TrEMBL record:
The keyword Ligase applies. It comes from Arthrobacter mobilis. Keywords: ATP-binding, Ligase, Nucleotide-binding. Belongs to the glutamate--cysteine ligase type 2 family. YbdK subfamily. SUPFAM superfamilies: Glutamine synthetase/guanido kinase. One of its GO terms (biological process) is modified amino acid biosynthetic process. ATP-dependent carboxylate-amine ligase which exhibits weak glutamate--cysteine ligase activity. It comes from the Bacteria. The keyword Protein transport does not apply. This is Putative glutamate--cysteine ligase 2. Its EC number is 6.3.2.2. It catalyses: L-cysteine + L-glutamate + ATP = gamma-L-glutamyl-L-cysteine + ADP + phosphate + H(+).
Length: 365
């Protein structure tokens, strides 16, 4: 069984106003004081004081990962409630706020170097680590999953609002995140040596602060034997997070099998993948996506069916097929997180109501 684990970034919000609340330091101090730092899911700070991140352990079974996702959300919210705030799974801060950088040396260095891009950064992503047997397998996987990542981004689209307005995008976090100079899809690489050469070349430019700042859509982890997939907004509902994690693991398993069988990666230009990701960010599942095989516009339902067919054998090997089909049917029937946020805002006439509903759905089992 190929292993996987996840990282979910959450927004800390004032339940009365929906505004982001800069209290992560208080939360983590409280956690250390009570000894809950030894919990199965680790809670850590991110870049801004209005965020908290839940990091699971390593899992082989989807059911175990699903439990960890729910536990991470519950643990974070328990701490948040003690500080008078709540945890919300929102891909971007919906209301205008002057966010505060975590007082750590690296965070302060990022803000100093990247100026307004860093000042205005307040987004929450969802990162999935999938185990690989070697750097060679890892790079082979990176080469073979790149076409499929925009579909995962569309499934997880959960950031329609920014600074109090509807952006017109389902996943506006992708647009905000793209302001950093080291984001986006990778070119085809072919070998670990080519990957390391690219990393070295980028670091020698002096633009990225360090290797951790190479925010590729998918990358080799620096500290674990994993491929890290980084394209999705944090998911509004825990079940959607489970679905995307299962699909990500199946994509990695399928890519590794293709590599072992000598099947070459699709030679899609990186510029085309940027367009595919923009389209996923713009419309989520509500309009066309670029087909991961033909690179032509197709209805989102067809793109999803193509993805499911592509990874079906891997889902069966992991015992995830039925669960994934159920979760995917559920997501498509009610819409992405972005669609749910917009429905609430339209029905109530306020973005603040969408934040309050997001808090509820974040913790709905």
């Amino acid at each position: 069984m190929r292993t996987f684990g996840i990282e979910e970034e959450f927004l800390l919000v004032d339940p009365a106003t929906g505004m982001a609340a800069p209290v992560v330091g208080e939360l983590l101090s409280r956690m250390d004081a009570t000894g809950s730092a030894e919990a199965a899911v680790r809670l850590v700070h991110e870049f801004k004081q209005e965020q908290i991140e839940a990091v699971t352990g390593v899992h082989t079974e989807l059911a175990g990962l699903a439990r960890a996702i729910r536990e991470g959300r519950a643990q974070a919210d328990t701490l948040a409630r003690e500080a008078g705030v709540r945890v919300a799974a929102l891909g971007a801060a919906p209301l205008a706020t002057e966010s505060r950088t975590v007082p750590a040396a690296r965070c302060e260095a990022l803000q100093e170097r990247f100026a307004l891009t860093a000042v205005e950064q307040l987004t929450c992503g969802y990162h999935i680590h999938v185990g690989v047997d070697s750097p060679a397998e890892g790079v082979a996987v990176l080469d073979r999953i790149r076409n499929w990542l925009p579909v995962l981004a569309a499934l997880g689209a959960n950031s329609p609002f920014w600074r109090g307005v509807d952006t017109g995008y389902a996943g506006y976090r992708t647009q905000l995140w793209g302001r950093w100079p080291s984001t986006g899809p990778l070119d085809l690489l072919g070998s670990p040596e080519a990957y390391r050469a690219l990393v070295g070349q980028l670091l020698r430019t002096g633009v990225p602060l360090d290797e951790a700042m190479l925010y590729f859509d998918a990358r080799l982890s620096r500290s674990h034997p994993t491929v890290e997939i980084r394209v999705s907004d944090v998911c509004l509902r825990a079940g959607d997070a489970v679905l995307i994690a299962a699909l990500a693991r199946a994509l990695v398993e399928t890519a590794a099998a293709q590599w072992r069988a000598g099947i070459p990666p699709a030679p899609t230009p990186t510029a085309t993948l940027r367009l595919a990701m923009w389209q996923a960010s713009r419309s989520g599942l509500e309009a066309n996506l670029l087909c991961p095989v033909a690179n032509e516009p197709v209805p989102a339902a067809k793109a999803l069916a193509t993805l499911l067919d592509h990874v079906r054998d891997a889902l069966r090997r992991h015992g995830d097929e039925e669960r994934v089909e159920d979760l995917l049917t559920e997501l498509v029937s009610r819409g992405t997180g972005a669609e749910q946020q917009r429905r609430t805002a339209r029905g109530s006439g306020s973005v603040e109501a969408a934040v309050a509903e997001a808090v509820r759905l974040t913790h709905q089992d």
